């Protein structure tokens, strides 16, 4: 196993190479120049959003920037360090590449201490996701699909996705139901 792959597995918190058995490819997103996107510090105060807030996190979190909430604009999320993977989903034809923030990294940044996360969409759809899923499966909060920012019409601005091709277990109604799109809020419980 390459050094880059070991670092990536560690970054996603995956237990071992067995999570790579499927066809999905998971990689650290890289800009055109070829170097890895640097991640923002994972400790200390959380900056204030400079642009439109696209995500609010509340609940059992230790780091906030607006009362009891941690609010993020797109640049703040991207500054946490982007990753990508390619997988087949039931919502798109063929394999697609998602880019976004690993959920483990996002929760670490806000000092989350809960066992579940309730993802709430713009239309108030909600789903409960065990926090353990994030490290086990390398779950991502996607901002892009095939290089383009997700729009509301295309399940954006944020879409919680699993690397469905890495394990047959992920290709089931249980995990598809946890894959919330148009995510606006996360509540850590």
UniProtKB/TrEMBL annotation:
Gene3D superfamilies reported in the protein's UniProt record: Oxidoreductase, molybdopterin-binding domain (3.90.420.10)
Protein name in the entry: Molybdopterin-dependent oxidoreductase
Pfam family, one: Oxidored_molyb
Residue ranges annotated for the Oxidoreductase molybdopterin-binding domain, each copy included: 89-163
InterPro entries for this protein: OxRdtase_Mopterin-bd_dom, OxRdtase_Mopterin-bd_sf, TAT_signal
Top-level division of the source organism's lineage: Bacteria
Species for this entry: Paeniroseomonas aquatica
């Amino acid at each position: 196993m390459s050094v880059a792959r070991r670092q990536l597995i560690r970054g996603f918190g995956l237990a071992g190479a067995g999570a790579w058995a499927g066809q999905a490819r998971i990689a650290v997103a890289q800009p055109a120049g070829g170097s890895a996107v640097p991640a923002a510090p994972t400790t200390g105060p959380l900056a204030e959003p400079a642009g439109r807030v696209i995500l609010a996190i509340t609940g059992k979190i230790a780091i906030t920037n607006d009362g009891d909430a941690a609010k993020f604009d797109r640049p703040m999320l991207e500054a946490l360090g982007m990753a990508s993977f390619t997988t087949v989903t039931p919502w798109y034809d063929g394999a697609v590449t998602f880019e976004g923030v690993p959920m483990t990294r996002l929760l670490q940044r806000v000092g989350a201490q809960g066992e579940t996360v309730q993802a709430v969409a713009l239309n108030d759809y909600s789903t409960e996701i065990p926090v353990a899923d994030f490290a086990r499966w390398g779950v991502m909060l996607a901002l892009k699909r095939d290089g383009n920012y997700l729009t509301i019409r295309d399940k954006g601005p944020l879409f919680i996705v699993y690397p469905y091709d890495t394990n047959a277990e992920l290709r089931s109604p249980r995990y598809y139901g946890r894959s919330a799109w148009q995510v606006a809020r996360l509540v850590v419980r």
